[in-house]
Specification:
single chain; five-stranded parallel β-sheet; 6 helices; 37% helix
Length: 156
């Protein structure tokens, strides 16, 4: 008699943590590009871009972003908050490929943490459409990427 496997799918990594309490705000790539251009002129900035990709980190990233895989975010939020606050950062911009999963989740978690600290100066934002939206928006955006690989984005 044949047996049928009824193995359930693996539990997603984020199931180990609570769902974000807040729906995160998003920021348009046009606004981020304006911020990047302005900071290039003044050499000061009050924001940071955080690329949350891990296994799918390919095709390039937005210049001056840090890479912090989403899987390591939740337990490090107190340290990240302190580092970001001490650096005078006011906008923390999270993204992944599309910012529909990890990007929104990270922005929500961090927004919750900011709220819990009683901080009304810092904002946690998800980059609308993620790095894919950025990389496919045209040359004006691509020139602000590092390690850009057109083949990755033309096949996605």
């Amino acid at each position: 008699m044949a047996t049928t496997s009824t193995a359930s799918p693996p539990t997603p990594w984020h199931a180990a943590y609570p769902a974000p309490r807040n729906t995160p705000a998003t920021i348009r790539r046009e606004d981020v590009l304006d911020m990047i251009k302005q900071s290039a002129k003044t050499s000061s900035r009050d924001y940071i871009l955080v690329d949350l990709r891990r296994n799918d980190y390919e095709g390039g990233t937005i210049r001056d972003s840090i890479n912090l895989p989403a899987q390591s975010l939740y337990p490090t939020m107190p340290t990240l908050y302190t580092v970001f606050k001490d650096a005078g950062l006011r906008k923390i911009i999270w993204y992944c490929s599309s910012s529909k999963g990890r990007g929104n989740r990270a922005a929500g978690w961090f927004a919750d943490y900011i709220t819990d600290q009683g901080d009304d100066q810092m904002k946690s934002l998800a980059l609308a459409e993620g790095v894919k939206g950025w990389a496919t928006a045209g040359d004006e955006y691509v020139q602000w990427m590092i390690e850009y690989d057109a083949e990755v984005w033309s096949s996605s």
